[in-house]
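Q: Please design a sequence for this.
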């Protein structure tokens, strides 16, 4: 099987054209960013590039730098959305967190959260991906 073919098939099965999926994703990320700001987070950037990796939302909660992965399902629960964070995405988020720590320009702790959005609402899962520098 060619690389990425499985993902292409899954996207086709989802029933949304690529442009509609991108629009849906950007809309969800904007709503999540607004909700995080209402909770006191300071959103620095959406779709932040950290080396070769992308972080959906990069924000501060107090002095903690938070990398946030947004997962959304338009036809399923938020629990189903969080289940879609696979090992490859975990590796990429940890790599991005390590790169941000190496920069040393944030001066505090780093945390990786997942915001899962589904038809039944949304949930912020703090420290969803274990990341600690020892």
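A: Design:
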């Amino acid at each position: 099987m060619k690389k990425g073919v499985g993902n292409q098939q899954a996207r086709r099965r989802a029933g949304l054209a690529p442009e509609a999926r991108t629009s849906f994703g950007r809309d969800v990320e904007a709503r999540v960013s607004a909700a995080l700001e209402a909770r006191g987070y300071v959103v620095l950037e959406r779709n932040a590039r950290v080396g070769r990796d992308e972080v959906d939302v990069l924000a501060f909660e107090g002095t903690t730098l938070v990398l946030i992965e947004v997962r959304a399902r338009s036809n399923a629960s938020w629990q189903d959305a969080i289940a879609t964070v696979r090992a490859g995405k975990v590796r990429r988020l940890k790599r991005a967190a390590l790169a941000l720590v190496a920069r040393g320009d944030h001066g505090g702790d780093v945390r990786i959260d997942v915001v899962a959005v589904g038809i039944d609402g949304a949930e912020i899962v703090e420290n969803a991906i274990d990341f600690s520098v020892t």
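Q: Thanks. Anything notable?
A: The helical segments are 5-13, 18-38, 78-82, 87-103. The chain has one domain: 5-129.
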